Amino acid sequence: xxxxxxxxxxxARKWQEEIEKLREIAxxxxxxxxxxxxxxxxxxxxxxxxxxxxxxxxCAFLFFKGSLLTDTDKILFQQTENVQAAxxxxxxxxxxxxxxxxxxxxxxxxxxxxxxxxxxxxxxKTAEYTIPEEFEIKLKEIPALKAAFEALTPGRQRxxxxxxxxxxxxKTREARIEKCMEAIxxxxxxxx
Length: 192
Known about the structure:
Distance between the termini: 31 Å
Oligomer: single chain
Mean pLDDT: 92
Order of helices and strands: HHEEEEEEHHHHH
């Protein structure tokens, strides 16, 4: 146990018993505990394997490379259609976690083997994402915007493309693009 992570478990109002059990399971598998993104993160050597986090309706184990797990017991969820690698095991009671403990441990050990083998999730390339027409027009009109966008990391580029594309109306897409231009020029990702 890492004392820097203790506060996460003591501050929990909801799901406290459940997340403490998830912590116990991760530590029993020999993983190292760190605090990352404000949540308990369990690592094998220097690789992130599992994250514990809470939501209003459930708590979860998030497997960073969950898409590579065989998931024979069908307990993993893809959070949204745009999440490529991570998968969650969701819980609404301590009884669920206790019942699934052997399966969770098996999944953790499989995740360790994935790390040992050096397997990587084949992520969709930025070029495979649709560039909304409104953004294409802006990139043609303002060469400096195009240069600034191309200078962003692939992840930041994808973040903007997903944000722009998720708007149903052209007017909303245009407004989003206008609102994000300064951040793009400043080399920032969406929401930074």
